[in-house]
Design brief:
Strand order of the largest sheet: 6-7-8-9
Structural class: alpha+beta
Order of helices and strands: EEHEEHHHEEEEE
Oligomer: single chain
Distance between the termini: 32 Å
Radius of gyration: 20 Å
Number of strands: 9
Length: 157
């Protein structure tokens, strides 16, 4: 990730979830070794595992629900909680850079800002096959059950 990646507008894709650990089961909280107030950030279908962030970091991340530069988001968050913007930026920069590298926070103009979802619907034709259903979708791989060619054999694509 380059410095440039953090200079333009960034956004949390619509499928990113910020879940307070208090909403998780007691067993899950024990496995996570988390603090009260921590928030899990996850993006279904992303290969990167969920991460834990502090409640304050989660509030800053919520500033990226709509496209925003890092500076704009930090200033808004700092004003809302009465914090020093420079100190907030200094403390948040490593986390924001990591979340950009991992795909949780993306350039607003990037295709990665869209939800990770299937490219093909049931009934559509691809490579001489008819899609029956989508079996699995992750960020860089999709698996479909299809009917192949004129013989109508089921196959995976």
């Amino acid at each position: 990730m380059t410095e440039t990646a953090l200079s333009g507008p960034l956004v949390l894709p619509g499928d990113v979830l910020l879940v307070p650990v208090a909403d998780l089961s007691a067993g899950a909280r024990l496995q996570l070794n988390c603090q009260d107030g921590d928030v899990a950030i996850t993006r279904p279908r992303l290969r990167t595992p969920s991460r834990l962030v502090s409640a304050g970091a989660a509030e800053l991340l919520r500033e990226f629900a709509s496209p925003s530069t890092v500076v704009e988001a930090v200033i808004r968050r700092s004003r809302a909680c009465g914090a020093d913007p420079e100190a907030t930026l200094e403390g948040a920069y490593p986390l924001l850079a990591r979340l950009v590298r991992e795909g949780f926070l993306v350039s607003a103009s990037d295709a990665a800002a869209r939800r990770i979802e299937a490219s093909w619907d049931a009934g559509e034709r691809i490579a001489g096959c008819t899609v029956q259903c989508c079996l699995q979708v992750i960020e860089d791989t999709e698996v479909y059950q299809v009917r192949a060619g004129g013989a109508g054999r089921e196959a995976a694509l």
